[in-house]
Design brief:
By secondary structure, the chain is α/β, with parallel strands linked by helices. About 30% of the residues lie in helices and about 15% in strands. It has helices spanning about 50-65, 70-80, 100-105, 105-110, 125-140, 155-170, 185-195, 215-220, 240-255, 270-280, 300-305, 325-340, 355-365, 380-395, 445-450; strands at about 90, 115-120, 145, 175, 200-205, 230, 260, 290, 315-320, 345, 370-375, 400, 420, 425-430, 465-470, 480-485, 490-500, 525, 530, 565, 575. Strand 5 (about 200-205), helix 8 (about 215-220) and strand 6 form a beta-alpha-beta unit. Helix 8 packs parallel to helix 9 and helix 10 packs parallel to helix 11 (about 300-305). The radius of gyration is 34 Å and the shape is elongated. Belongs to the PPP1R37 family.
Length: about 575
């Protein structure tokens, strides 16, 4: 067995003297410790007093050196640049095929010019090319808005370089990565960039395969982000369970995001319940919520109706293309009346009939601040239009109401006496009825069919909540009194004249006269408001298009025109 003996100290160590040949370490004085310094390279050393000719020449030489083809579209843009000092509006490379060598040649551009927008949409970027480009954009601070949409093959290294760019570039405010998959192995890099620090204000990740772990990582990271204002997550097949739970949890902690676009996902009623839990915590923050086409039904609107009075920052709510139906609108009505912030409401293609339109009209009448309402692609017929017209006369805030260009056809049934002739010789039908509670009304004949579709007693009481009452025949045709009812709101009575010849007659009534286009009239109908309503110009309204479910700030031509009437009546104008 070996025994270790202590190692004796060096000779002379006891008296503080070193033995001959021992090493010693000394340091210079503070003044002499730094012998010199090298300044970092200035990334803009090539951009001093540069000319278009110099940029074109440098790019062509780089292409020749790298043995790659020049991009004619790029050369044409460079030659059209006038003022090179500030950021140039746009560098558009959309649709050009950029391999690694083509991307390396672009450095001669980026080291000399800066841009507001760099558009790399659908440029077939691979991992090498994407990594090189993102490194250049980060180093030279080349863009404030970057579009890398529809580049499906940038891979893990490409996303890693993009995350580094997001973290290090102080000028990058807008990143559009639509159709660029962010998969499980790439998402951690982007999540880390968003959590630590980022100047991004707008992030588009539509159709980026986020469902599952990628969304969980992003939502967790964004809880601590205070700079992002707009988050677009459409077309990601987000589900109503773990995905919606992550988004609801995000809304509980993040009060900086103002726009959340979730259109064309699978949020369902269960997912909306999670989102509502987060919305209840939003005392400030979320301004726009887009839930277009998420299979939300009347059950989901029950959660939303309870939550809306607590969502005091929400100004735009778009529920278009969800089958919420009349019952869903009734669920929303109380919450909307209790809410004091909603300015724009989208209910396009939500399976509403006249009954739902009456509920919407009651909200319009109660709302002091609603600016925009979209009711297109619904089965709203005469009764619903009457209720909306009456509500518009009471409401003083609504600037725009979108309805279908072609009014829905009414079912007209023949009574016992058959058709008669008015003084002008036009045939007038007896027993015409509008049932505001029915979902569909089909053309037919016979007294039985008329009663089955809502014909009422002479007093005007309708079993389904709506009906008609005949009034004495006028010189132009027969007038019918349409009764529209809604639970808890009593009866609203309107007078309408139906003339088969197509002539429009507008009798006056205490609630305001309304005329209705004859059946099959393809002309658009415009609701006309009284002069007390301040009607904006086209540039002052916010468009909520049928094809684009979010409200865009770009003005477009509406299917309905809202113009003041010189007489103050609510009279729909027929024709262009």
């Amino acid at each position: 067995m070996l025994e270790m003996e202590p190692n004796p100290g060096p000779t002379g160590a006891e008296d503080g003297r070193l033995r001959p040949g021992a090493k010693r370490v000394t340091f210079p004085s503070d003044e002499d410790i730094v012998s010199g310094a090298v300044e970092p390279k200035d990334p803009w050393r090539h951009a001093q007093n540069v000319t278009v000719e110099e940029i074109v020449s440098a790019y062509k030489q780089a292409c020749q050196k790298l043995s790659c083809k020049q991009i004619p579209k790029l050369l044409k843009q460079i030659q059209e640049f006038k003022d090179l000092a500030p950021r140039i509006d746009c560098l558009d490379l959309k649709g050009e095929k950029l391999d690694y060598k083509a991307c390396e040649a672009l450095e001669e551009i980026f080291k000399r010019l800066q841009f507001k927008i760099v558009d790399l949409e659908q440029t077939s970027l691979d991992e090498d090319g994407a990594s090189a480009l993102f490194d250049m954009i980060e180093y030279y601070e080349s863009a404030t808005h970057l579009n890398i949409s529809f580049n499906k093959h940038i891979g893990t290294r490409g996303w890693q370089a993009a995350a580094h760019m997001m973290r290090k570039t102080n000028c990058l405010q807008y990143l559009d990565a639509r159709g660029t998959p962010l998969l499980d192995h790439s998402a951690p890099f982007v999540a880390r960039a968003l959590r630590i620090s980022s100047s991004l204000v707008v992030l588009h990740l539509e159709n980026a395969s986020l469902s599952g772990r990628p969304l969980m990582l992003l939502a967790t990271a964004l809880k601590m982000n205070v700079t992002l204002r707009e988050l677009y997550l459409a077309d990601n097949k987000l589900n109503g369970l773990q995905d919606a739970a992550q988004l609801g949890n995000l809304l509980k902690f993040n009060c900086s995001i103002q726009i959340l676009d979730l259109r064309n996902n699978h949020i369902l009623d269960s997912g909306l319940a999670y989102l509502c839990e987060g919305l209840r915590e939003q005392r400030r923050g979320l301004v726009t919520l887009v839930l277009w086409n998420n299979q939300v039904t009347q059950a989901g609107t029950a959660y939303l109706g309870v939550t809306l009075p607590h969502a005091q920052s929400l100004e735009t709510l778009n529920l278009g293309h969800n089958p919420i139906g009349n019952e869903g609108v009734r669920n929303l009505k109380t919450g909307l009346i209790g809410n004091r912030s909603v300015l724009r409401l989208g209910l396009a293609s939500t399976k509403l009939t006249c009954e739902g339109a009456v509920a919407v009209a009651e909200f319009i009448a109660e709302s002091p601040r609603l600016l925009r309402l979209d009711l297109r692609e619904n089965e709203i017929k005469t009764g619903g239009l009457m209720a909306l017209a009456l509500a518009l006369k009471v409401n003083q805030s609504l600037l725009r109401l979108d309805l279908d260009r072609d009014p829905k056809k009414e079912a007209v049934r023949g009574g016992e006496g058959g058709g008669t002739k008015g003084r002008d010789g036009a045939g007038v039908r007896h027993g015409a009825a509008t049932d505001s509670s029915s979902d569909t009304e089909d053309e037919g004949a016979g007294g039985d069919g008329g009663r089955r579709d809502g014909a009422v007693s002479p007093k005007g009481d309708a079993e389904g909540g709506g009906g008609t009452e005949e009034t004495p025949e006028s010189p132009q045709g027969r007038q019918h009194r349409i009764l529209v009812t809604s639970p808890g709101r009593g009866h609203k009575v309107f007078v309408v004249t139906r003339v088969e010849s197509g002539h429009m007659v507008a009798p006056r009534c205490p609630q305001g006269g309304v005329t209705v286009s004859p059946k099959g009239d393809p002309s658009p109908m415009s609701l006309t408001l009284s002069p007390k309503v301040d009607v904006p110009s086209a540039g002052d309204v916010l468009e909520m298009g049928g094809s684009d479910p979010k409200m865009s700030p770009h003005p477009q031509r509406s299917s309905q025109r809202v113009t003041p009437s010189p007489t103050g009546d609510i009279v729909p104008s027929v024709g262009g």
